[in-house]
Amino acid sequence: MAQDTPPVTFDSVPAIERPEDLFAVATAMEREAARRYDQLAERMDDIDVPDLAALFRRLKAMESEHEEGIQAWATRAEVEPEQRLSFTWDMAEGIAEAALADAGGAESLTSYKALQLAVRNEERAFAFYANVAAKSSDPTVREYAERMADEELHHVALLRLERRHAWRAEHGGSSPSQAPDVDTVEDLATWLADRDAEAAARHRMSAAVARLSGDPETAALLEDMAAKRDPQSAPATDADLGDAVSLVQMLRHEIRLGSEEYDMLMRVVDRAQDEAVLALAQEAVAGTIARLAALRDRMASLEAASERDPRV
């Protein structure tokens, strides 16, 4: 292989078949994340948001530590990547590269937009590692991909919480989502079971639509989500798929519902007086974050494919 290649993205990452492949991609992703967090910290300094600038610098340090950790893992596993990759982040909607590169773009890069960009890329990183772990037949690849997915999920949770605070600050209050009326852990468990059953039936219906549309990958993702939420559910013929007329719109509808669920659960977390309620709500939040990351990643892949070929 050549030693240097053009920058890759989440949608053009080489196939991961061996530990060498995983370590090459992971090193490039961590290096790019550290670079981007450095840029975001500088832009937050420009608009005088010191707390968020400090958070981004902390994340930069964490990403740099992860890169060093990956190199240490490679050494212990006696793995030497055959190529040096460069990686580039996705730009979130409404954010131009210039807004990150210099202070001239700082005016358009609000706290919320900065966090939106970070969440988008951490979600895609989590989904990438989780997908590698699920599909690889190499035990070393699976082990390290699972570890990396756990690390990225921690970042997603941290950034989502900060983004929630930024949304409230920019919109003058809390979101319109209502917290479920739960006082005990039994109440919350019942509410979650009802949500799971409803969502699983909807996922199975959406999966059937995806298969009929010739997209087995989206179908498999939704079927897996349905099985994990409620193994006994059957497709609901009257499931609410919103106004979806395409797979991207269908996924966007799922993301909207998942985001509402995340916000409702976070309101439970905010108000919880009982430790058992708090623990169950936090566990449910983690599951919701993971599902949202997978959905957003798949939607981004479909959008990228559509840009390359409008017939997709």
Task: Describe what is shown at a glance.
The chain is an all-alpha fold and 312 residues long. It has helices spanning 19-46, 50-76, 97-101, 111-135, 139-171, 185-212, 216-229, 247-271, 275-308. Helix 1 (19-46) packs antiparallel against helix 2 (50-76), helix 4 (111-135) packs antiparallel against helix 5 and helix 6 packs parallel to helix 9.
Mind sketching the topology for me?
Elements (H helix, E strand, L loop, with lengths): L18 H28 L3 H27 L20 H5 L9 H25 L3 H33 L13 H28 L3 H14 L17 H25 L3 H34 L4
Helix pairs in contact: 1-2, 1-4, 4-5, 4-9, 6-7, 6-9, 8-9
Account of the protein in words:
- The mean pLDDT is 85.
- The protein is an all-alpha fold.
- It is built from 9 helices and no strands.
- Helix 4 runs antiparallel to helix 5, helix 4 (111-135) crosses helix 9 (275-308) and helix 8 packs antiparallel against helix 9.
- The longest helix is centred in the C-terminal third of the chain and has 34 residues, at 275-308.
- 70% of the residues lie in helices and 0% in strands.
- It has 2 domains: 19-171, Ferritin, core subunit, four-helix bundle (Ferritin, Up-down Bundle); 185-308, Ferritin (Up-down Bundle).
- It is globular.
- The chain starts with 18 loop residues before the first helix and ends with a helix.
How is the biggest beta sheet arranged?
Answer: none
Q: Roughly what percent helix?
A: over 70%
Count of alpha/pi helices? 9
Count of domains: 2
Over the alpha carbons, how many angstroms does the gyration radius reach?
Answer: 20 Å
Mean pLDDT: 85
* Portion in strands: under 5%
Low-confidence stretches: none
Terminus-to-terminus distance: 31 Å
**CATH architecture classification name of the largest domain:** Up-down Bundle
Oligomeric assembly: single chain
CATH names the topology of the largest domain as Ferritin
CATH-defined superfamily of the largest domain: Ferritin, core subunit, four-helix bundle
The beta-strand count equals: 0
User: What is the global morphology?
Assistant: globular
How would you classify the helix and strand content by structural class? mainly alpha
CATH class membership of the largest domain: Mainly Alpha
The SSE order reads HHHHHHHHH
